[in-house]
DNA sequence: GCAAGGTACCTTGCGCGGCAAGGTACCTGG
DNA sequence: CCAGGTACCTTGCCGCGCAAGGTACCTTGC
């Protein structure tokens, strides 16, 4: 891995969940697909993280899922946002903006 | 509290530690003082979080501490950055910028 | 002179979420 | 036919923030 390993791991907490919701905004996606995108963005370190997360999102009814056959390979479970999911995402965007603002300010204060 | 309670709590993970380091940049501070500043900024919910954190920072030699008497009230433990602390802070600034950038981008993608 | 309340430190028990490792099954390509 | 990519999932662990609770100092007011 690049830099800031341990630090990154902590940063992802709580963010990853909402990043998944954000990715679902533009249409339904399946897990393995999300894994590669989030890993690429440096927001996910292990597959083993995402599937339990998706289960939680289903349990909390922020997403709903449907099995579809793949043109090649095993079947995929596709996820889509529910209304609650969209609401949660909007709410998080505010929290994030505010939070990130505070942190930026604090980190620069006398840099 | 305002909004996004639970979300906020998760967001603070790993950030708080480095915010403390950032606050020490401009000179030594004592715990109770940090508590009020960080609480004010919405980055800390409970006193009980900070003291163990400060112990960790001491253990990892990112800060050093010295007891000083207070003009009024019980003695205070003042904390100051070590060289390692300054380095950790610099390193975190990069991680944070990169991380926050990724998140911002992802959250806006099709907002 | 003593109780009340602010200052200042610390500890304990808990829960949650990300990580690593491991496991199953499907399907294609050599 | 089997090696390897696709795609799903589970289990055990660890670290950090939180809430609640605890000690002691010092001032203020009655």
TrEMBL record, chains A, B:
Domain of life of the source: Bacteria
Domain Transcription regulator PadR N-terminal: 20-90
Name of the molecule in the record: PadR family transcriptional regulator
Organism expressing this protein natively: Nocardioides flavus (ex Wang et al. 2016)
């Amino acid at each position: 891995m690049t830099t800031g390993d341990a630090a990154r791991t902590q940063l992802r907490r709580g963010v990853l969940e909402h990043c998944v919701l954000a990715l679902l905004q533009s249409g339904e996606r399946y897990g393995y697909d999300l894994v590669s995108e989030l890993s690429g963005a440096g927001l996910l370190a292990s597959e083993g993280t995402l599937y339990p997360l998706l289960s939680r999102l289903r349990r909390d009814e922020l997403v709903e899922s449907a099995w579809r056959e793949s043109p090649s390979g095993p079947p995929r479970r596709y996820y889509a946002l529910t209304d609650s999911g969209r609401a949660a995402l909007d709410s998080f965007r505010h929290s994030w903006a505010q939070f990130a603002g505070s942190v930026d300010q604090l980190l620069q204060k006398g840099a």
